[in-house]
Design brief:
Length: 251
Amino acid sequence: MRRKLVAANWKMNGSKAQTESLLNAFVAGIDAKAVDAVVFPPALYVAQVAQLLNGTGLEWGTQNVHAADNGAFTGELSLGMVKEFGCRYVLIGHSERRELFGETNADAATKVAAALNADVIPMLCVGETLQQREAGTTEAVVGEQLDAVLNEVGIEAFKRIVIAYEPVWAIGTGKTATPEQAQAVHAFIRARLAKADGDVAAQCRVLYGGSVKAANAQELFQQPDIDGGLVGGASLQADEFTAICQAAAEV
Ligand code: PGA
């Protein structure tokens, strides 16, 4: 049985005060025994998050990381640094990193390998744009994004990787994929992994992201290949995010 996982991606939002009030509500409202919950704050707030979540059963991580151990990489963070602040997860290859900051499939593969080496769980984001979906290339695009990582780290490594399928056209747009649309791509991802190893494919958690909210979480999480959610906008509202976690715990 794959345990459900729900992650909050705060992107470049928040403040010290908001971090504190959101996390107090998350700790009070999320049953960490029933669902894995992970918070990805802006990197500056990771120390504060670590202090507030330490010992609560909720986990945290960064939204990006550099693959190198250290060096002349102005503005970047290493895995050693994020580990020192208790990060168990790191987001890799989010569509905003790919689209706005030019990250490639090869970059994502290098970062996933580095995270695994450092014993940090990579949450690998994949997904097609609207144009790609309309051109009928969703599976080709997502398959290529997956293969880049598979070829770099091998199938066994997917026991320690979480995948987040996020159709770019559904991110921050309020346009959620229908449960059927999402399930179809999740099944494709799992089948792609199963070609390499059926057991690993059956174990690997594949989350859905893109306008997940309390109102649509349950029907998404009921799909057989959807193992939780990566939540942006709704994770900045305490009642929304705790309700999404509750839905995951109950499915
Ligand atoms: P959204 O963002 O929930 O605001 O659509 C999801 C994400 O980008 O991870």
